[in-house]
Amino acid sequence: QVQLVESGGGLVQAGGSLRLSCAASASIFDPNVRAWYRQASGKQRELVATITNDGSTNYADSVKGRFTIARGSALNPVNLQMNSLKPEDTAVYYCNVRSFLNEYWGQGTQVTVSS
Predict the structure, then answer these.
(1) Which CA distances in Å does 4 have to 11, 12, 55, 78?
(2) pLDDT digits (tens, 9 = 90+) for 2-36
């Protein structure tokens, strides 16, 4: 079973930037969609951004223009550049990779934005 591990989270002031990475323990066969989700304390997990194999991207309205999702290498399948961070972006961020047969999740990385 492939394991995903996020990194790059931390504490940042409002207006700052962070770059999240997602490392895979092995190559994922034929990934279709790569995504980032987040879950704030006391709230449901929500979709932040997705990117397909042809490079098509989709963003939550709350992060459009500030976050950029990108595909990486086979062992670093997806990254998330987060700029102009706001306190409401505070959450645990999870990477997600879906293939035709499987779906993989990381354990999450905490992002805290102070005002």
Answers:
(1) 22, 24, 21, 10
(2) 999 999 999 999 999 999 999 999 998 888 999 99
